[in-house]
Amino acid sequence: MKLPSWTALLGRQAALLRSAGSALGTRYRPPPGDGQWLMGLVMAADGPRRYYLFRPAGVRFGERLPLLVMLHGCHQDARTFAASTRMNRIAARERFLVLYPEQTRLAHAQGCWHWFDTQGGRAQAESAWILRAIDQVRLLYSADPSRTAIAGLSAGASMAALLATQHPQRFRAVVMHSGVPPGLAPTAATALRAMRGQRIMAPLPPGEHRWPPLLALHGEADGIVSPRNAAAAVQRWADAAGATPGPPQPQRRGQRHPFTVTHYRCGRELVATLALIHDLGHAWSGGAARQRFGEPRGPDASRLAWRFIARQMAAPR
Questions:
Q1: Is 150 helix (H, G, I), strand (E, B) or coil?
Q2: I need a surface site. Which of 22, 127, 199, 235 has the fewest CB within 10 A?
Q3: Residues forming beta bridges with residue 102, ordered by sequence position
Q4: How far is CA 237 from the centre of its chain?
Q5: What is the domain partition of the chain in residue ranges?
Q6: What's residue 203's pLDDT?
Q7: Total-model pTM
Q8: What CA dihedral angle connects 290, 38, 128 and 120, to 10 degrees?
Q9: Which fold, 37-56+68-314?
Q10: What angle do CA 13, 14, 20 make, to 5 degrees?
Q11: How far apart are CA 159 and CA 167, in angstroms?
């Protein structure tokens, strides 16, 4: 007899619980980086969710480290995203924690975050358990609550931006790599048009919102998520803060793809930075060649992201 769908759902959730029954604090062989690769479990409204944490080697008792939350894109998971970005190597050197929440294939068949489903509530539900994971890591591993940032790729970038605008007091900076700005797609039906850059938002009244500073990275040859979305994101931040752009600054790192950087400021305060990378498709710039959605010929997005984040964490609030 065929089981009802809700029974199958409970069975799959039970299997996940069994596989992760002693997961919290369990050590696993990490992607590259000198430290511990820890697996944890947090409860969401509809069942358990898994996350991974990179903890640098040699953390002293009572030492409070910054925390960077990294949200993977579609067709990725925590391990492949960590391997692609190689963020753990930077974390080991610069001494910060990296939290990788992981979407389940039960929640989305391609492992995408529901950044677009604000009308149906799934975006808010996923935001809630990601915040619970952050709180759990702060409690268990003494992460500094005043130095937390969030970043992501593609669907993860869109979810990161949504979290930063919904809970701005929780984050010191946000990094979007190839994502869609919040507010463009309230439903699944509008998500594809938003990804193509075919949806427009009305500008916000200046000074209405105070969001964490934004770094938006995007490939100009991206055929999955239009680079118009990166420009729309920084413009959204600029409108909210009453910021204006400075002159575009062409840059290049050795033989890697050149890129153009534009800073948006309100007075002396940095509000947003746009980095458009020439010849880059839909991939993490500077990412590992063997990993899906990694492009080693681009400038190192992980280094650019942490440099941006570290400056915001060092700045007075």
A1: strand
A2: 22
A3: 50
A4: 17
A5: 37-56+68-314
A6: 64
A7: 0.90
A8: 40
A9: Rossmann fold (3.40.50)
A10: 90
A11: 12
